[in-house]
Amino acid sequence: MKTIIEPFRIKSVEPLRMTTRDEREAKLREAGFNLFHLHSDDVLIDLLTDSGTGAMSSEQWAGIMRGDESYAGSPSYYHFRDRMREITGFEGILPTHQGRASERILFELIGGAGKVVPNNAHFDTTRANVEHSGARAIDLMIAEAKDPRNRHPFKGNMDVGALEALIEEVGADRIPAVMCTVTNNSGGGQPVSLANLRAIRAVCDRHGLQFFLDACRFAENAWFVKQREPGQGDRSVRAIVRDMFDLADGATISAKKDGIVNIGGVLLLRDADLLHRASDVLILTEGYVTYGGLAGRDLEAMAQGFEEVLHEDYLEYRIRSVQYLGDRLLAAGVPILEPPGGHAIYLDAKAFCPHIPVDEFPGQALAVALYRHAGIRSCEIGSVMFGGAGHDSPPMELVRLAIPRRVYTQSHIDYVIEAITEVHHGATGLRGFRIVEAPQVLRHFTARFAEL
Ligand SMILES: *Cc1c(COP(=O)(O)O)cnc(C)c1O
After folding, report:
1. Which of 291, 308, 325 is the last residue of a domain?
2. Residues contacting 171, CB < 8 A, separation 6+
3. 183 within ligand 1 shell (Cβ under 6 A)
4. What is the band of 162 on the pLDDT scale with cuts at 50, 70, 90?
5. What is the mean pLDDT of residues 160-176?
């Protein structure tokens, strides 16, 4: 069969609310042209993020009912812990309320002034947490990743030569850990090969460094490895996932991605002393070690979600349906970051509106236009998110269309394709923006803009 169908049927539905163009114009002005400020019931198709926006299965909802809310030693915790041990091989497993809580605990313990943390590309909250600790966050993407047209099969790979050069330059004693983000969210949802992870591990071993994964999308990454990496095609996703985790000393995970839950996170640690200290910080700021800021029911939903995400018919549907959106946009002449990523399609805003200079935020212009034209909410990943005082402008200006898991059907995606194609035809009419108000960190969440 050529058609990859959604491998589920729908038991419960949420109505979508249509709005008029005039209504959307008014909402945009109220929101200071920041799509994070919109009320989500004024959005028709919400592609702001795939984080925490997935649809849970009937088994996950059943887990919600089974959740045991005991303060300490809940069976829901042990269910979650055993499932994570089975999948990752890690013994040290801490639940947290989401990915950034894992990051904050980790960098409070290993970060600090004078330290340097390399990554293929830091996600925004990871970078912010590294920098909040006083350390410097360095991105080491391969050169191919900076060219939106390059179809390298593992565009998320780290430039291992650049990692060696960095260690040489700053000294291994200033690097508390090397991180690698799978898949690489900031770099286009692109996968990292097992070979690259092994090469990073080898460099870490040579210099006595710890290696951590930002493993938010470990299952999607493993699916790409199975599809694209020589010698991996006959292996199960589970075995590939296990290989990925076996290479690492620890991992931060947002369960809101491949955990297919609405809230939750995980911190995996191998070192007993670090685990001990992380548990202390967890208790201080998140909650006791057997719930970590979550309810028992959340732990049940996570245990089930991390299991379902490894089903290969799910992963095939997931990756192929994102690819469908990317391929159709390309066929319509819309510039996107190629090849299509695992959880999202990234519009290339520099190529989409070449008449808008980077300091007038072409990504913001495009994201606003998609909402104005069709009620679609997307997310700027460019100079608004990563620019500002003390930061170089990022290599690409992107607009991310993140696809929530198991939420939208093919006709929703066909509508998105049609709308973007129409906006592309009128792209020369789009105008840039200036920032009128912004906070010091993570400014994209709250900044306000004026249209030029
Ligand atoms: C979402 C995400 C995070 C942060 O997780 P939250 O649950 O949003 O706090 C970290 N890294 C990557 C790659 C992510 O996609």
Report:
1. 308
2. none
3. no
4. very high
5. 98
C-alpha 216 – ligand 1 centre gap (Å): 6
Tell me: the pLDDT tens digits for 203-228?
Answer: 999 999 999 999 999 999 999 999 99
Each residue's pLDDT tens digit, 6-17:
999 999 999 999
CB 58 within 8 A of CB 11: yes
333 and 315 co-located in one domain: yes
> Of all protein residues, whose CA lies closest to atom 6 belonging to ligand 1?
99
User: What spacing in Å lies between the alpha carbon of 215 and ligand 1's midpoint?
Assistant: 9
Model confidence at 391: pLDDT above 80: no
pLDDT at 186: 80
Domain stop point among 258, 279, 308 = 308
| Together in a domain, 292 and 156 | yes
For residue 327, the CA-to-ligand 1 centroid distance in Å is: 26
Ligand 1 lined by 214 (C-beta under 6 Å):
yes
CATH number of the domain where residue 129 is located: 3.40.640.10
